[in-house]
Amino acid sequence: MTDIKNFNVGSSTSTKKKGKSLPPKLIIKLGKFVWETMWHTMMSKIAPRNPSGEYIRPSSQFRNFISAEKGNLYPAVAGRYHLYVGLSCPWAHRTLIVRALKGLEEVISVSVVVPSPIAGGWVFNQEEEGCASLAQLYELAQTGYTGRATVPVLWDKQTKTIVNNESAEIIVMLNSEFNELALNPTLNLYPEGLKEKIDWWNEKIYNSVNNGVYRCGFAQTQEAYNQASDELFTTLDEIEAALETSRYLCGDNVTLADVRLFTTLFRFDVAYYGLFKCNRHRIQDYPNLGGYLSDMYQLQSVAATCNLESVKQDYYGNLFPLNPGGIIPSGPDMTYLLKPHARHRVGKSADLQV
Ligand SMILES: N[C@@H](CCC(=O)N[C@@H](CS)C(=O)NCC(=O)O)C(=O)O
Q1: Nearest residue to 260 via CA among 243, 272, 248, 277
Q2: Considering only the top CATH level, what class is 192-346?
Q3: N or C: which end of the chain has fewer CB within 10 A?
Q4: Which atom of ligand 1 lies nearest, measured to the CA of 166?
Q5: Which mutation among 150, 171, 260, 261 tests ligand 1's pocket best, with the greatest number of atoms within 8 A of CB?
């Protein structure tokens, strides 16, 4: 606790200019009022809320599809499409993983954007399409665009527009539409026979885990936080139980449901546990979830898409209202990601196993 006397705000020990300084109680009251007002104003900019203080994520606005079928408006061809991603972003990370697993590195190019506290959004390291920031790229795609300039963006270099900016849809396209060009065309992360189960997990995990951690971190009332935190840890318990007998969410092979869960789990102990107050348990404290996270991390080419330093820097360094001092924590120790995980005991070796 800070010693209020050090501020010389008119405590009884102060001998200077009696009557000119404010009493400590008033200073605290005033400071609290100003900070709370500012905090809610800033939070409403980064995190839209409903009247109960719950975080409401805006929906993505570009929803076109690339198709393997010739003659389509956006045909699957090599070299035409580009992905814009931020390394700290869990949604963008999904697209990098599916691109890597399918072997599409030579087919779809990538640029990494970085957060700029000055610009208040993502910017490019060097100009792209004549733009300095992602917001300008959105404007180029749609004049007068008023939504958020989010990553990932699937960009069409030919028509200079955004095909799609919804990660859940981009990964479906990358999985199925580029098989004629992919190095790993037989890998199917969304097989027909498992679609129902994958969709079931996706819906549950999106609300309470993927978006759930944001609902905790961006909650603006205690009730909204309590609700989000309860839902988050109830679902994590449910996943922990399912992973007792199943190597991955839907059996022995990795699916899109695992990719979507993984990018949140990977950031959990590093960012969400502390900054977003998701601190009932760490992922490494769950025997099955902890092992599952290491298992996914160690899959061929997944680790190369992961960047813990960017996660830490971007979350702690750029979400000012949640961390006004901007101090980046030194921990936690994440070496467990590289350790043997013993997940083989619950399922035979998967098709992606190294
Ligand atoms: N629904 C989108 C969400 C993407 C998203 O929220 N991305 C964040 C980064 S983690 C972003 O770019 N935020 C910038 C902003 O809101 O201004 C998806 O899954 O693709």
Answers
A1: 248
A2: mainly alpha
A3: N
A4: 20
A5: 150
